[in-house]
């Protein structure tokens, strides 16, 4: 047990009257609530002088750096960070306000080459990148848990299952853009990085025991080296309930309302759903209201909406209704890969047979390796390989194809034998 765990356990004992788990584990005895950070709740860093001090402290620290970020999803526009939590041996825990200190690139320079420990890294890295925090090495405790076969990989479940402590998770969905941040929220935020390095160390040992540590390292490297995602094409097509919208004119209404809502939400810095719900957008598209009065009768445009708001939404509807046919959106999106699997039996029965065999083989192998199928190999990769297999489906050509689709070397090594067998299956 580390000094941090012993201190936390002693604090918990005074509160709960329980006993700390042996060696930080939870296999025996009840898990212990982790109620207070080891060093108390640190002050929020919100000025350049304090930021310089904490950067110097982290540069002088040792070992990996635990990193977490809190966003205001559902409250604010976009996915920016509103609080960054960091912890390192010798430096303690730091809570940083990225609104007051929007450039944290100094951290990257101070801890260049140091491993960052995150939980569900792909969720936090985009907002960290926006404020200049870009790691060169990571350890993702959620992904490590998946590869190691843990059935529940949320941070709270992992800390409880691996280390034997219970994290209080009641503030995960609050509005982190609130200023000043309430003390209970700051306590929650500090506790999120309190045991993250301990969790990393335990998971590294477990992955090594299972022979999967190198696999995890390849996955972490792939996340670190991945380029920023391209902006989504036609994001309005992801409006919830879009499957009900069949006609092109109705699709144009969805597009106009979605884009109008997005402009307003961006200007007001609020979540688009707080401006107008997806359900209301779809209602207007299906109803094609002729005027403000008709619009007001639809769900989502009720009595709480003022005349001016109704007029701006009706104007968007009218713009869509006035478009010439040539400017209406086309149904669906351009297909860049194979067709939906449900259509394979009719389009290419042999490909359908290959896919069925490949799915079964991958499922059996994932169960044998005790990990989710999607972490063993992505379903999209399997579909693409089965739709357009190599001319000669031997281990070499299948491995090359998998690597071309982005599979890591460990994945190629594991799945190639079973996929070679699946590709030899003939359709009826």
From TrEMBL:
Compositionally biased tracts (Polar residues): 1-15
PROSITE patterns (UniProt xref): HRDC
Name of a matching Pfam family: HRDC
GO aspect biological process, one term: nucleobase-containing compound metabolic process
UniProt-listed SMART domains: 35EXOc (SM00474), HRDC (SM00341)
Region annotation (Disordered) ranges: 1-39, 224-243
Range of residues in the leader sequence: none
GO MF: 3'-5' exonuclease activity; nucleic acid binding; nucleotide binding
InterPro entries according to UniProt: 3'-5'_exonuclease_dom, Exo_C, HRDC-like_sf, HRDC_dom, HRDC_dom_sf, RNase_D-like, RNaseH-like_sf, RNaseH_sf
Limits of the HRDC domain: 247-327
Protein name, entry field: Ribonuclease D
Species this chain originates from: Streptomyces phyllanthi
Lineage: Bacteria, Bacillati, Actinomycetota, Actinomycetes, Kitasatosporales
